[in-house]
Batch of 3 targets.
Target 1
Amino acid sequence: MKRLRFPFVLLVCTPAAIFALGGICAAYRSWSALGPEVDRHMAVRGLEYMQLYREQLGEALRMPPERLAASAARLNIERFSIYNHADRLVATFPDLTPIPISLGTEQSEAMLAAARRGQVVIDLVAGDGRPIWLAYVPGDGSLAVALLGLESHQEERFRRATGYDLAVYLGTTNSLAHGESWPDQISRALLDSLVSLDRALSLDLEGERVAAVPFKDFDEWDVTGAIIVRQQRLIFELPRPPVIAMAALILAAALAVLAVYRVTLTDAGPGEARRRTRGIALALVLPALAAAWLAASDTQVSAKGTDALLAQSGAVVAESGGPWAIPMGRLARLAGAYVVWLDGDTLVDSSIEVPVEPLAGIDASPGRVRIAGHRFAYRIIGVDGDEELVLLTDPLEDSRNTVLFWLAGLYALLAVGLAIYASLAVSAGSGMELRETTTAWSFIAPSLIVLLIFSAVPLLFAFYLSFHSWNLLEPAKPFVGLQHYIELAGDGLFWNAAKNTAIYSLYVPLTMACALGVAVLLNRRIKGVALLRAIFFLPYITSFVAISIVWQWMYDPDFGIFNWALGLVGLGPYPWLNSPSTALLALIIMAVWIHVGFQMVIFLAGLQAIPNELYEAAMIDGAGPWRRFRRITLPMLRPTTFFILVTSIIGSFQVFTFVYVMTEGGPLHATDVIVYHIYQNAWQFLRMGYASAMSWVLFAVIFAITLLQFRLLGRKMTPS
Amino acid sequence: MRVAERARDLRRRIAIALTALAATLGCAGETGESTVLRVMAWAGPEERQIEQRILDHFRERHPGIRIEYQSISSNYRERLLTSIVAGTPPDVALLDNGSYGAAPFIARGLLVNVAAYLDRIGVDTSAYYPEVLEIFRRPGGLYAFPKDFNPIVVYLNRDLFDEAGVPLPERDWTWADFLSIAQRLTRDVDGDGRPDTWGTQVRRVFYLWQPWVWAAGGDVLSRDGRRATGYLDSPETETAIRFLTDLVTVHRVVPSVDVRRQSTGMERNFFLTGRIGMVTSGHWWLPSIRHYIDEGKVRIAVAPLPRYDEASDPVTVLYAAGWAVPHNTRHKKLAVELAAHLSSAEAQRMRAEYGLAIPSLRAVHEDAAANDPYGLEETFLFAARNGRMSWGSVVEEWAHVEVQMPDILDRVIFAGEPLDEVTSDIAQRIDAILAGAMEGSSLR
């Protein structure tokens, strides 16, 4: 019983714990408001929020005075003044008291100059500590100045949306009015550290944990203030559906683990184990269903939230009163992402005017659409005749995916675990056997999981990539079907690379012959044999790049040692790497030299496993050395030979380093091999999709060849 | 007994689970104190030491900041691209106008436009060589602070010239002079019927033969960089390619066509040991051969690339590197300041002592030239004045285009194909690449 405990923990508890913890972390990050990490995250959200507010102000300040006056209340503008290019007052709101533009201090003069130069809103602090926003309107050279009200709608909205108190400090002194509540003081030291470190900080402010981020000017350059957030104290809050779902699934996991554990512990026979497994599976169904239902209901709630957001955007447009006055910044904040124009059947980004993607499936009612492989919620706002504004946003329900992913992973894992266990229980002859099999699986479980995550997942992802046009730099990664495979069939360079790879793999039989010879010669007790073996093995453990560089020197047609040596016996000179007809041969020769040592070591191991009695018996029967080699050594080495053949052929198809360092596939593509071709397409030309398709073809070829080897030679190669 | 044992076991397991949970939550709540700036570049060991010293000066001015200098020797472009796209960019990265071309980075908006901050950080761009600054400039924008640059010139082994009794070329030499000198330097010294010294060397890597194409009045791409047909296969371009291939196949004044993509130092050794008389290369040769000159083992001279004929102007190609800031750095101001510091006069002076390349600040280069004990910098100043920037600074697909070029030399020299067929074939292939027939660009 005790023997089983440790392996059991490995088999079921470790992966289950990984997934459960992952799920908890995901839920924690998404929903809970605990911990400085979340605080800082919220501070950054507060920052983004204020940046959008600033953007809206900038847009508003560029409006004609009467429109600006209409938006003033909404944007929390208490007063504004507009000056023409000669600094003469042209408009004020709400009365005739202008806001002076020369504020006197050196700092404000500099900021005024920046407004004139930068043509955007900047932050400034008036005498009573309130922020002033300036905008320089490039068209007619006028300057708009706004003094903001003390009451901040933004802070209230932020609180409602996130459950966090938001405080904005501007002016790098402890000055900004943000409402009188909390916290009143911000230390100079805190601002200084925000300025010098330029990152979000967690800190203790008057006994409360808060998070602060630097607030920067319009071009993200100077730190002009700070955004501080503090979580609101809540008396009681119902756990939201996903949290319940998580709890239910974790409970299910715990039940399953406990149940399997119990089954393993008993000495019951397979029949009993099977019954219990069935019982566990049934017991799991209920909590799983509950979890699924809750997760689904949460998705529905989120979807409703997205719809509400889109509906709200309609109100914003209606409020604006005309197409030219639509507050894009505000819309963007509502939508969370993009505001684009619908022009014919193409989306045009309002700022950069490039076609995004031909659209299909967008109609008048709000809905969801997939654009460039990404899901958006959208709403079309009729603006003026043909012109239509489209709002695109990430559907809220999609952001739940991380948690759902972990939930699904946890449940899938449990299902797989149970399935394996059930099949073990069925096939096992006795309780003892069942336990032993479980133990065996437990021990390989950790490496199996690592293998699955780091090999199987990338492999499958490459398969997915091969059907997509996947350029690292392009945001759009459209599905292209079999296009890459079709292109591959007609790609002369690929087939040339395939041919070269096949020729290159001929080094394998050559090396095997040499390695076997060397191994037989060195398989005896003579002085210095260990040193000789080490010398033969040395190339294999030397850096391939170093070898490549040295061999390049040796292959030099005019100065290289090979041509010099061959010249002594009246041969050559040969161009080696410098000619398309000999370059591949030169690589093969080098490959033989490198791999002989490795194969020799394997052959030596094989040779030493041959019982000496066989040779003794053969000698008594009068067999000579050649006969002994042919009749005993070779047949007894079959498994070793087969192993070397299969692994080396696979290795030969993956050759890359020599080509990369020595020839870059040249001259005249004579040494272009498949993996180099893949590398070139993936990294030099950034065609990930095409490269993945090639990788899969290469995989299929290697797989087929290996299978063929097993079929043709596998049976023969096992010793009789 | 058994119940008690299991209860103990359960307690232990709960304790372990709680510890694991606490550890997970602890990770999430972790805070680090110092801000880290990452610099990504390629550099040799000596160069790295200099860069560290330059960075130390920045650290002294910004206490509380840590700087990590990453030197990446292979797959630089790939590493940089993936790190930017993955959202974990370095704060400052080195880019050039050759194989690590800045063009795609600029075109895709992956770099910060530093033009808006020049007066705020006190950088005067007029102090830079204008040709070098131009590489990283776009209408309304500057996307890197030039670090240094390399014009391609011709290194001459004076010992070999003296042995062969050939006078050193004048600064205004022509292709005809180049050929006749190469022929006179190619000699069979030991009388075995094979030459032992050679006039020059031809390498298939495109960056070395680009200036020859320009010298003959041709080019490989149209002015806007979007078409190769009509340019790569123009008579002028073919004249230049023919001149180079003839050095190999007709005049036989070169040891062998170099198939290597990376320099292994081989051609340098053959140059230093007096086997090859004239080698085209950049300023980067100097640090590694300077001590041979100091020890009196070799005497060298540097000449600008020859002009096509008496009537034409001298021209060479400039390869420049500059410090850029990825658009998604988390510390924009610090990063831009650091990038500016890395190409400041102070930094450039420290690098100039080592002399891997020519400082991009004209004043620093002129100082270095005035104090040059080898008398070589004059030629580099001359070359810099006649330099043009490589296509890598403007053509986004340059990496893809450039690898097509060695095929031309290969096919003419090895396969003996007619030059005009080869160039028009390759030109069409390049046109297809530029037209975006390839993946990824098809949507643009």
Target 2
Amino acid sequence: MPAKQALTGAEAIAYAMKQINPDVVAAYPITPQTPVVEYFAKYVADGVVDTEMIPVESEHSAMSACVGAAAAGARAFTATAAVGLALMHEIVYIAASLRLPIVMAVANRALSGPINIHCDHSDAMAERDSGWIQLWAENVQEAYDFTVMAYRIGEHPDVRLPVMINFDGFIISHGVEVLETLDDDVVKSFVGKPIKMYSLLDTEHPVTYGPLDLYDYYFEHKRQQIEAMKHVPKVFKQVAEEFEKISGRKYDLVEEYMTDDAEYIMIALGSTAGTIKHTIKELRAEGKKVGLVKPWVFRPFPKFELQRILNGRKGVIVLDRSASFGAEAPLYEAVKSALYEVAVRPQLGSYVYGLGGRDITPAHIRQAFEDAFKGYLIADEERYLGLRE
Amino acid sequence: MPELKGWKELPIGGLIVEPGNAKQYKTGTWRVLRPVYQPENCIHCMQCWLYCPDQAIVVEIVDGKPKMRGYNYYYCKGCGLCANVCPKSTDPKTKQPAPEEKRAIVMRPETDFAEE
């Protein structure tokens, strides 16, 4: 029977990993990720999982150990945040390039400097072109659910890509929420045995990982990665459908909230979507036709879904929890680009918020919606919510 | 060099799934200088075969003894070690470089063979 539990996001992810029982977990502590592997280390110490836990000397080594383990045919997991993810950067690309379905939870935190430990999305955005599938959780429940789903997506023979589960640092990682967890045996049979391909330990079929790949073949291998990403939407939907059968919870590439008749739509990643839903309810009570689109999947970018949903709306407001210095913010840039070909382009507005953990309130969200109601969205102007001028 | 494959035909991730496939790599395309064998001067001492860093010296066993039979230009990178160690490259009296017509191996610019 599904059980209600009160857990932090970090505990929920560790709990899902306990149920999955991966072969290898290699990790290095960093705020606010640390409790994920801390809770998991307890499962290892208590003998409730068979996992080989490798406490490494840096995040660069954590991802390197995961690459080695995954190439050997093991299910590998790590978790990190911010500068830890940045230190991994080199191997993050290698994991995707070698097509290893590693799963990594990222407790999103602002990149230094000046040093800051609180939530924003600059860490994950720095890896958006690394070739990882990026899932974005709004709350503890979604962080748990995505962890259960991740290996099924990444290990699929048409995909073979690593999966990053983003969950906002502190807000989700340390916030206790009630969630519904599945039974161990249900998770076990859903996740199944690892789908192994080209395992180094399969000595009957020897294989070389990581040979020099120059101008004669590198380009073709990048094209294969591009193709693998194109297969993700189909595979994600299949896995989500199966997941719905065991959980009753429905996932898609994007979540639509009160969009059916919405004239104005806000788009945001992660926990802020919850605050937006709250504000939308208030605005709906005042008769405003507003809605939310929350990408559950940011890489691959759900372009066609956004084109279908946003075409013909009056206004679209994109909230970014990271800046792109000298260019448009990453989510906004992608949404704006997606809307180039739609028949009836909505007014578009870009709002950067919440950098370094700056709080975002319903008042800020209302402020952005008010701009839209007044027809005062300017596509080439970046605005800031909660910033002191 | 084997024919270059398109992205749909290749194993993913740059993986090499066929052990020993380096033999398909035509390293001879790297060659700038070509060793040319002059069999009439060869004493079949096999120094060239011993020193060749690849396996570019073609050897035939005749009556239990090895005979130099020229080069495998598919692999020969033109490093010139064979010509350097060949005893026929040096005049035994003067210890100076032997005249070309007396050598067993002569290094020639690859451009001389551009029409081949």
Target 3
Amino acid sequence: MTPLLQIKDLSIQFRTDEATVNAINGVNLTVPAGGAVAIVGESGSGKSTVMMAAPRLLPGNAVVHGEIWFDGRDLMTLNEKQMRSLRGREIGVIFQNPTAYLNPTKTIGQQIVEPLLYHHIASAKRAKEEAIDLLDQVGIGDPRGRFDMYPFEFSGGMLQRVMIAMALIASPKLLIADEPTTALDVTVQAEILMLLKKLQRERGMALVFVTHDLAVAAQLCDEVYVMYGGMVMEHLPVPQLVRASKHPYLRGLIQSIPPLDGPVEPLPYIPGNPISTTRPLPAGCIFAERCAAKMSVCEKRPPLIDFDQQHQVACWLAEKGGIA
Amino acid sequence: MLLYVLRRIGYMIIALVAVSFVTFLLMRAAPGSFLEMGSGGVVGVDLGLGSVGVHDPQAVQEFIHVFHLDKPWYEQYWGYLWGFFTLHMGTSFEYPATPTLQLIGQTFPLTIMIAILAIALAVVLSIILGTLAALRANSWADRGTVLVASLAASIPHYVVAVFLMLIFGVWFHLLPVVGQAGPKYFILPVVAMALPMCGSMSRYMRNSLVETMNSEYMVTVYAKGGGLRAALFGHGMRNSLLPFITVVGPQLASLMMGTVYIEQMFGILGLGKVFTSASSTRDYPLIMDSTMIYAVLIMVMNSLVDICYGALDPRIRKAQAKGR
């Protein structure tokens, strides 16, 4: 498949008065058109930062280097006006906490139609009809009545459906979902995931799903990028996730998922804390200090080694077939 | 909603009784009496009305009797209070030929016009200045407005008034400084009242707007393809006006005090002037009535602010509609 989004050698720093945060340290990733890609990592791994860099929605103190190719254009070279014409029309974004990311004083209807109005795609009247139609598709009952209601009159799950409708109304080629279910109940979570999957298939759009939840990523996506300390540790197709993961970090993550059956045993966990992004990075492997399989060669930082087609691992062990 | 209004009116009546009682106490506690200090053309405004001679014992006795000054204090107090609520205020010491109601009717419109124009000018100026400062947050223009704002906030109305008189009246002969012969005469008084209010209000507007523009739902607006204009006028303004309006309320009280000074300085025959001359001549009925009408005015304006707040914030509007 042709790549829709291709990020090359991306590095991002946040400059604050106290320190420089090395949020992203050389990330390469590819999203095929119509594909579903998950970016998985713990808090502070830079997973959201990477994806917010694509529509250039990072705060003003971010220093971004690298290339972000979207549909044949390097987004890094576009001016603000060209960039604005992509946002909302070709790239849609869903955020983690719909209550905070919706304006509390405007009706959801007013907010949903905005992408169409900003890009002069439809008249206000047509936009309203499309919005009502879309609200119906994302599973909001009585969409005509709800159109004129305010965010505080909805539950969190409903608001996330509203957010999805808002991101999709201009039919973008790429949908970035930044932890869209983290703030929701588990049952609501499952409904939203199913809805996202269904809409992605129906519309043939590409989906980037940012999450800390490996299980959710496996359920929804075709391939997974695992991030740690602002770098990609492993990239592999979902079917190989459980059995063929090669990186000690990913292996640790998978093992720390509690099994639903079998005897109750203490869960294995990864010792130590995530690497600090405010201090200079170590010269060697950034996971080395927490790694049980550390070797002398880990003093040197491993590149992403091609293990298989569609499967890269940033670990010296990969050359020997990965962690046992 | 009706319940809300009724409760509101109930509070106003209680507050008014409290204000009138304190005023009555202070007024009676103040040394001196009308017979020594007032009338005889010594002080006060000459509205061409009668006066009482101090040297005629019989006239003094009659004066005391006519104004019920020989009654116990609580009867006097009740007389003032009941007279005010039923609009049978009688006449004052100073102007026995003009009913106080008529006196207030003549002077009150001037005062309220100046007050409303001043607050309107202050609000409009503050919104414009605050918005400009917010858009250029932390630039030299922003810091410049901080300086001007703190200057304006720390200089009282009457000092500003003197400066304005000096600049526009004395040096440039652009505007008249005393009197009320036409619209031109009200420009300086209104500006003198509005400027000091602008100081703190424009800062408040600036902070409120900066906070709104940095809130998470603004990221959504940009993600939908909105530019600065959409963010500012479509979302930011209205939301930053909400906290802004709450600071306009308390300004109203100081605004009413301002009219007292300003009318005195610019020689305008408003309620403030009536009030000052009444208090300096110990004109008991007029002190009571003008204080109470001031109190009513402030309370009504505060209620208007609350209503505006409700109109802008759907959360409050909908809660009120349900009768809470």
